[in-house]
Write a structure and sequence with these properties.
The protein is of the alpha/beta class. Helices cover about 45% and strands about 15% of the residues.
């Protein structure tokens, strides 16, 4: 990267209008005094969220020249060494000298491509009048290493595919409570959301090309976000593990059992490798895990994890008949809805099962797609009652997709899935 090329990149950004974007319902401070990290999987909308923040700055108003955006995947800058990062502010101030006396808002996209960028960001935050916003697709780099390198100077926000509330807004649907016509539109949209997921590009695409887009996402996530980024040697194993997590979303996963299953297929692997690969999937925001709630840390570590996949549309890539697994996809949608609001979500299982619980049992919920069968209704009633006996003060919820006549004891805690997803 040289300064003259950098000046051209900066000048081009300043002269162009910000790209058109649809607003996301994510509240991010503009002047927190901290480095703001936008974390999330590829194609979840982190870059356009940056443009949204830039637009908000221009409304303050902040001068266009005070906003600097650098995408470290720009081939004109590649390769970028950490020692060259000082050129960014130098080039910017040579182009716009007046900004030396102004606060400058720096947006660094895909910053993980520059080895050692953390030290540079920490230094300019300490010595310059800047606000820094960064994005990247790997939480290993941006959460674990950054928390140490920045020493309390950063705050992180996870960016997921669209929530259901964002989905209907992107689709131009105005939800009017108690309106039969409006509710019918929202219910239809919910089934589409459950089928195709919430990646912004997919939501706005024609249905004919949605499978192609999702197929491309799956390929890029495997090869760039996993194989290349982590220098994975056993690509076949990672592909099988990725496929397994997609096909078994909202299911309990035991590394020991998985190791035996893969070994029986003739794969050469170790349990340590499986643990590492599973951690990579989670670090890349492709899969998420819930631990079993247990006061004993030892027992909790030994218990299977419940896995959830990033997006129901992406599951279609790995399942030839995704409609057969609607209950698990539905549960993972609810999990991701809650994950947007809290990082720690457990499950409970001991004679009965609670799909999700948090805050030491202050709230728990079960998720069931089809409540029309008597056996299902009785099972869920027993689980809810057992949960209430264990945590008498807890808030209980039963989130369902289909139902005829729910038993009276369940009615106060039961709510349709699409309504639950519209709750803030």
């Amino acid at each position: 990267m040289n300064k003259e090329t950098l000046k051209g990149v900066i000048q081009q950004f300043i002269e162009r209008s910000l790209p058109t974007f649809k607003r996301r319902a994510i509240d991010i401070p503009l002047d927190s005094g901290k480095v703001v990290n936008l974390l999330g999987a590829r194609r979840t909308g982190k870059t356009y969220l940056m443009f949204q923040l830039m637009s908000d700055l221009l409304q303050k108003p902040v001068a266009r020249e005070q906003i600097l955006y650098i995408n470290f995947e720009d081939d004109r800058l590649y390769p970028v060494e950490a020692a060259e990062l000082d050129l960014i502010l130098k080039a910017h101030r040579e182009l716009f000298p007046f900004t030396a006396e102004k606060k400058v808002y720096l947006f660094f996209d895909e910053v993980q491509n520059v080895l050692g960028w953390e030290r540079y960001v920490r230094r300019i935050v300490d010595t310059e009048d800047v606000a820094v916003f960064i994005s990247g697709s790997s939480s290993t780099l941006l959460r674990r290493e950054l928390s140490t390198a920045m020493r309390g100077r950063s705050i992180s926000f996870e960016v997921y595919p669209l929530s259901f509330a964002e989905f209907i807004e992107f689709r131009g649907i105005d939800y009017v409570p108690y309106s039969e016509r409006s509710e019918a539109q929202v219910v239809n949209a919910f089934r589409e959301y459950l089928d195709w997921g919430g990646f912004p590009e997919v939501v706005l695409a024609d249905e004919a090309v949605k499978p192609l887009i999702l197929q491309e996402y799956a390929s890029v996530m495997l090869h760039r976000d996993l194989v290349e980024r982590y220098s994975i040697r056993n690509e076949r194993l990672m592909h099988l593990l990725l496929k397994f997590c997609a096909q078994h979303t909202a299911s309990l996963v035991s590394i020991n059992k998985l190791y035996n299953d893969f070994s029986s297929q003739g794969l050469k692997l170790s349990k340590a490798t499986l643990y590492d690969y599973m951690e990579m999937l989670q670090d890349s925001f492709i899969a998420f895990s819930s631990a079993k709630y247990d006061p004993s840390s030892r027992r909790q570590l030994q218990a299977p994890k419940k896995m959830h996949f990033l997006d129901p549309g992406l599951i279609r890539v790995y399942r030839p008949y995704p409609e057969r697994d609607i209950g698990h996809r539905f549960e993972s949608l609810i999990y991701l809805h809650e994950r947007r609001r809290r990082l720690k979500i457990d499950y409970y299982r001991n004679g009965f099962e609670l799909d999700m619980c948090w805050d030491e049992g202050a709230e728990f919920l079960n998720v069931v797609w089809d409540m029309t069968e008597n056996d299902t209704t009785e099972r869920e009633a027993r689980a809810i009652n057992a949960g209430r006996e264990m945590w008498p003060q807890a808030t209980a919820r039963l989130v369902y997709g289909l139902a005829d006549n729910l038993p009276e004891p369940l009615q106060p805690c039961a709510i349709e899935g699409w309504k639950y997803l519209l709750q803030s």
